[in-house]
Amino acid sequence: MPTLIYAHFLAHIRLYLTLFIITLLILAPTLPKVPHGEHLTHIQAKDFITAQTRNTPTTYYEGRQGPTGFEYELMHQFAEYLGVSLNLNAKHHPESVLSAVREQGDFGAAALPLLPDASDVHYTRPIIQMQPLLVYRRGLHGIKAPSDLVGLEIGTLSQAGTSEALRELQRDYADLSWKESHELDVDELLVQVESGVLDAAVIFDHQFRLNRLFFPNVERGFLMGDPLSMVWALPRGRGLGLLEAANDFLQTLQENGTLDHLVNRYFGHDDYLEYVGTRTFLTHLDARLPQFADLFKQAARDTGFDWKLLAAVGYQESHWDAEAVSPTGVRGVMMLTHPTASEMGVDNRRDAAQSIDGGARYLRSLKDRLPESITGDDRLYMAMAAYNVGLGHLYDARKITEELGGDPNRWQDVREALPLLQQQEWHSQTRHGYARGGEPVIYVRNIRRYYEMLEYVEHSRQQFFQLGQTATGGSLLLPFELIPPLDQ
């Protein structure tokens, strides 16, 4: 009897299981599903994709020729790859980028590190490797090993990935401590190191290479931990179509060399604003300037500038190289952007005559467009700064100058405000946002130095001729031993 009861029980179980499976099969088509490409389909239907990003030099900012930045170029190309336009939401720090991706979409691109604990977002394939780097204030001696960091005031950015290297180090040095901030950015962190608020900071190597010239009192220390992968983030739960499209796009750029080209453009050149020493300058003066001197003199006659000033601008821009192409795509002796060249009627930026003429007229137009309240050398220096960073950012700096109680018509005051455009506290209040504000300060300073050397050479040459002598070899120069050093 027990056997019959058990068999009867099993029969009922089989019946119930069969009915349950049949029910599932019947109801399955009506259960909600996430289509494989729902997110991608939605983006294509609205005809634009929104990137949650940051206003920083390595990601996105308004540059000399409009929107620029390493990830901006990738984002822009990705939008074209999808056949839609690009919409940017750039008022973020790393932590808020991920929150915006989760809550709003469509994807996040802001030097995001691949971290294992973000299970509520999808990450793309790696874009580039980011190596954590310890930097410290000049004057602190003996910062050569991790053990030297104990007791120092160290800062880093939260959610940027750099704190991972510090946590790994803390396993061996329990007394190691640091501060994390989600409100600062890399530039502001370096300001704190330079000013003494912090002794050291951990950032990424490529970030320091982009910013080192603006912070001469910050020294490169040593690499820390393993490299991290820069990735993009996408929301979960909306299908895999957009993720697959992003991965296909990034893989294509990696395979065809475009990604390496962009990396080299943005992170492979960190010496654009370096001041070239006297001997190097004089070598170029002898070898290169003679072929352009008459063009600079003609442009000076047409625009009212001193030809030596135009030559100094040309040297800062290209080292008098008609074939020069900058990391951001400007080209020619005067490094004109494509929009500027079009505005000035220049159809071949590599033609030295057109480039020098167009650059001189553009500098004249900038000087003429400045407010009449700016006069004398101040007007010239601000025009040169605008040639480098754009009028919009210059006006933003003048506004900050006023807020700080300075005179917006004096270059000496405005040059103090320009670097503040690199700090989120200040650029968030401006019309044109982030700018590498330290760059036009160095740019104008370098041009003034090159101009001083050209002035000295011409003056000394005239004296030599008055004495019935000629410059060595018939060149434009005196022997460089006679030129006083201007490198300091």
From TrEMBL:
The chain crosses the membrane at residues 6-28. The active site is at E317. GO terms for molecular function: lyase activity. It is found in: Cell outer membrane. It is a peripheral membrane protein. Residues 271-488 are annotated as: LT domain. Keywords: Cell outer membrane, Cell wall biogenesis/degradation, Lyase, Membrane, Signal, Transmembrane, Transmembrane helix. In the N-terminal section; belongs to the bacterial solute-binding protein 3 family. Belongs to the bacterial solute-binding protein 3 family. It comes from Halomonas citrativorans. Its EC number is 4.2.2.n1. InterPro entries: Lysozyme-like_dom_sf, MltF, Solute-binding_3/MltF_N, Transglyc_AS, Transglycosylase_SLT_dom_1. It comes from the Bacteria. It catalyses: Exolytic cleavage of the (1->4)-beta-glycosidic linkage between N-acetylmuramic acid (MurNAc) and N-acetylglucosamine (GlcNAc) residues in peptidoglycan, from either the reducing or the non-reducing ends of the peptidoglycan chains, with concomitant formation of a 1,6-anhydrobond in the MurNAc residue. The N-terminal domain does not have lytic activity and probably modulates enzymatic activity. The C-terminal domain is the catalytic active domain. This is Membrane-bound lytic murein transglycosylase F. Murein-degrading enzyme that degrades murein glycan strands and insoluble, high-molecular weight murein sacculi, with the concomitant formation of a 1,6-anhydromuramoyl product. Lytic transglycosylases (LTs) play an integral role in the metabolism of the peptidoglycan (PG) sacculus. Their lytic action creates space within the PG sacculus to allow for its expansion as well as for the insertion of various structures such as secretion systems and flagella.
